[in-house]
Amino acid sequence: MQNEIINILPNDKDYVIGFADMGDLIRDHYPFRYAIAIGKRLDDTIIDEIENGPTAAYYELYKSTNDELNGVAAKISRFLEQNAIPCVPIQSTMTDSDLSERFAATLRLNFSHKMAATRAGLGWIGKTDLLVSEKFGPRVRLATVLTDHRFEKPGVPFTESRCGNCNICVDACPGQAANGRLWKDTLDRDVFYDAFKCRDACRRLSIERLDRKIHICGICVSVCPYGKRSTQEG
Ligand code: B12
Fold first, then answer.
1. Nearest atom within ligand 1 for CA of residue 108
2. For residue 85, what are the contacts with CB-CB under 8 A and spacing of at least 6?
3. pLDDT per residue over 162-216, tens digit each?
4. Cα 143 to middle of ligand 1, angstroms
5. CA distances from 66 to 24, 69, 72, 150, 194 (A)
């Protein structure tokens, strides 16, 4: 079953996939225990160019990557359904129904793609709260499919950060959103990273550089040495 799912990916050069046992982590909101975490690599040339803030090319890449990921998640869901396995794809982006009062007050959705990715063994959470994948660093966008099918070979979860003393993303963040503490899976987001400061900086840079009232930045994605290392390795 896992190999058949892996074969649904368009290629293995630009994608990572992992299988997670979520235990009770999402039980309050979803009647599923297992997750398929999917990451799509972001184009290195475009990511290298956003070291000082977002560009029009990055905004286009953000939209096209969401579309591609949603398509892959839908394909995997169709395959599971054809095999009579209940599942639900979680979109890469937010939908209008996500924009609740609770979200406005917390900037938290009921589902975290990054949590599925760490549980699937794809990577850890960096100091500016990005999923740093072993293969492509933070240069990935994510989508997830939830299911109640128990996979034969789930990934080994990451439970702590591998960022060590590196503070490059912390120093580069235009919103000064992170305080440099290392993530582990018992540490809440708000202890090491301020999502509101991040959002304010995303908004300011999107207006200044793209003349749009959106929230994109990407500087932390661009400067991470793990992502740059994956560029050098091709
Ligand atoms: C709301 C949101 C925002 C908010 C708040 C961001 C935040 N970090 O919480 C704002 C507007 C600020 C924002 C900004 C950006 N965002 Co945004 N955003 C989201 C969204 C829609 C929900 C995030 C959420 O609910 N967070 C709530 C907290 C609690 O969860 P979390 O931060 O996701 O992860 C925590 C837990 O998962 C926990 N955890 C992880 N493993 C485990 C295991 C266990 C056992 C436990 C208990 C906990 C645990 O660790 C994390 C830190 O505490 C997600 C999509 C999604 N549904 O996941 C995208 C997402 C996080 N954003 C993304 C991106 C790329 C960005 C930007 C770079 C914008 C841009 N495109 O230019 C910036 C920078 C963000 C940053 N440095 O984190 C990507 C991140 C990809 C990656 N490699 O990590 C996501 C996943 C979208 C996607 N489909 O790929 N975003």
1. 25
2. 147, 148, 149
3. 999 999 999 999 999 999 999 999 999 999 999 999 999 999 999 999 999 999 9
4. 12
5. 27, 5, 10, 27, 24
- For 84, the 3-state DSSP assignment is coil
Question: Rounded distance, CA 108 to CA 98, Å?
Answer: 10
Establish whether residue 217 lines the binding site of ligand 1, counting it when its CB lies within 6 angstroms of any ligand atom: yes
* The two three-digit tokens of residue 179, written as one number: 């305080």
- Cα 78 to middle of ligand 1, angstroms: 26
The stretch 3-12 carries a mean pLDDT of 94
Kindly report the protein residue whose alpha carbon is nearest to atom 52 of ligand 1: 189
Residue 84 CA, ligand 1 centroid: distance in Å:
31
